[in-house]
Amino acid sequence: MTQRNVLGGELEECGTDPVTGFFRDGCCNWSPENTGYHTICAVVTAEFLDHQRSIGNDLVTPNPAFGFAGLKPGDRWCVTARNWLQAHRDGAAAPVVLAATNHRTLDVVELEVLREHAVDVPPDPGQLLSE
Hints:
globular, 8% strand, 3 helices
């Protein structure tokens, strides 16, 4: 069954370099075993990565046991809806690719909040680096 994005269309791929998604299929797919709701396609920034580390979610440090090389600013990654929402409340939300964000995100985050952070990925994701 095709999964839908928060805009009602077919869920688009989030990222394959690095390969993201709860199922490591490049998409922010949801299923009952994805209890963390890894459903928001975010373009991670340095500020967001720092925030995540501060709440115990280290997305930077490589973890070879899980085939995880660590993220850098500009990477697209399926992040958990709850952690993204906490970053939003703390003023550190990462930009969101709505077409690649699973509709199940709306169980946790309102569409209006996601729209505030919606982006198309720029040709040079390095533009998202904090100064």
